Amino acid sequence: MSGQPSPTEAEESQWYTLVRENIIAFLLFLSPYIISYITLRRFRRFRSNDSEENEDNIDNLIIMFLCAAGLAMAMAGFLLLPCTMAATALINLQSENLNWLDTKLLATLWNYTFIGCNVSLFALLPFAYFYSETDQRWTFFAKARETLFNMTLVAILMYGFIYVSKSMLQMDDSIKDLVVLNLLTSLAGSIICLNALPRGYAVIVRWIGYISLRPNHRRFLNDELVQNQMDASVWEERLESINRLLMSSENNSNNHNNDRMSRSAVLPSSTATSLTSSSQSLYSSLNGDLSQSYFASSEGSLLIRERILAILENLETQNRQTQFKLSQSPLSRNLSFLVLFIFIHITWLVLIGAMSFNLIKGILLSEDEEQQRRKLDAVLGKQTSSVLSMFGTIGTLSEMTLIFCFTIATIIGTYSMSPFAKIRPQWGKVGVQQMIANVTVLLIISSSLPAVVRVLGLTRFEHTGPYDNFHVLKNRFWIGLVFRTGMLFKFVIGLLDLYVVGSLQMVRRSMINNHAHHANGSISYGYANGQSNGVR
């Protein structure tokens, strides 16, 4: 009995563990929240007629805070599985400096991330959207009341949709609605990943191709620099001529004003008052025409001068960019291109291999045999842990790299697709609705990422915590099989489209250019012969 802790000590230990886990979770949430808020402030669009104080009012701050919380939870969802794998590897090291890190803390972080993603997706972002659609002349409480009323109506519709979905998918009534809601979110995210992942890898390969430089790259840049300098000298000469013209026009206007003053001084007052209306109108029309022609010419010259200054500034910017490109080493860029090209293709091949292996395993093994094999692997793993320990760190790093590449390619491919390309964020041009839509898409992808990665077999990490909701489906085996088949098919089609179809298009384009070049050459040759015959 002396070895067992007393009830008071057990309660104190539980309280200490609870406080420690919540403090660590809050600190881990605070960092992505600050990053998310700064990112949204950079992408946020500010109107030119509004001041900084008008943009920082209570309404915009509420929407910004809610969207920043959603983006922070999306970042947590993306980093959850790789960080958990790294933390598990660190726990196995049994270091004294990592006594605060344990499996219970990881389980708490999984639960908090799951709850935060669902609360952000189904509560915070709808509130931000309905709040932004309310009448801006109302008070805060009136806007909040209308927003909550709209959210209540949407919640009733969502409950009906969940009930119909449970009936269609033949689920038990004992299954919670939150599980069904997360399952539907995971299915939507898996469909997005299915279409976006091959496209994202193709876009990454295209970006990597821009890194390589041609052998005559420096000579081309030197020619461009010389051409820009020649253009700048020509425009500077034109600017000098415009300045001389403006100075001469100003001198002529001063002389014209002096002549008018002397002419008015010569005329007597009686003569000036005895002028008829017709002579006065003729005199004013002549002077008015002169002044209007002068102002028209001066305004035109000033406009041309401003355009020339803009052209010179543009040429100066191009010269700076060209000099920066000249300072870069072609060897380092070509080596970087080679390394990245090999890395992305190795990742692509490993991803295809993992999906193919899991597809074949799913076809050959039934669900009961798969569970028995996992139990057998768990028993054999205790005996072979010393043999496989050298591959533990390498395997963890490779899986983390694979998941990071999977996530980045999915996000890039999502914004390359036609439905989502319209809401692609641009620096300083993102509105309120566009910001909410982007955060919603990222939350859907991050909520489905742990389940999608496990279904595709990209990791040996079997525990996905509350995200593992596919067990409620009766036909989950066939859904996973169809998803793996579709992903593999899309990858193969993307590979063929990137290399085979792209190469054929390049050959076709070169043939068309060569044909047009030969046609232009023959036309010019015939024209030259015709001219020579005419001369003769």
TrEMBL record:
Q: Tell me the keywords, alphabetical order.
A: Membrane, Transmembrane, Transmembrane helix
Q: Superkingdom of the source?
A: Eukaryota
One GO biological process term is: signal transduction
Q: Name one Pfam family in it.
A: LMBR1
Cite a GO CC annotation.
plasma membrane
Keyword Membrane listed: yes
Q: Thylakoid among the record's keywords?
A: no
Q: Which residues cross the membrane?
A: 23-40, 61-89, 109-131, 147-166, 178-197, 335-360, 390-415, 436-457, 477-501
InterPro entries, A to Z: LIMR, LMBR1-like_membr_prot
Q: Which family does it belong to?
A: Belongs to the LIMR family.
* Name of this protein: 1979_t:CDS:1
Source organism (scientific name)? Paraglomus brasilianum
Q: What is the lineage of its organism?
A: Eukaryota, Fungi, Fungi incertae sedis, Mucoromycota, Glomeromycotina
